[in-house]
Amino acid sequence: MQKDPIKHMNRLRILAIAALASIALAGCNPELMEDGKHLQPLSPKIKSQIRKIDSSAAAPLYVRIFKEESVLEAWKQTDDGTYALLKTYPICAYSGKIGPKKEEGDRQAPEGFYTIRPGQMNPKSSYYLSFNLGYPNKFDRSYGRTGAHLMVHGSCSSRGCYAMEDAPIAEIYALGREAFDGGQRAFQVDAFPFRMTPENMARVRNSEHFGFWQNIKNGYDHFQITKKPPKVEVCNRTYVFDPQGATHFNATGPCPDYTLEPSLLASLKKLRAKENERFRVAVAKLEEKRQEKQTETATEMVDAQMDLLERKQRIAEGKNPDGFIAGLIKGAPAPTEPDPIQPGPIQPDNTPKATPASQKGNFFTKLTKTLTNPFDEQAASTEATGDGNGDGNGDGQALPVLPETKP
Question: What is the pTM of this model?
Answer without folding.
Answer: 0.71
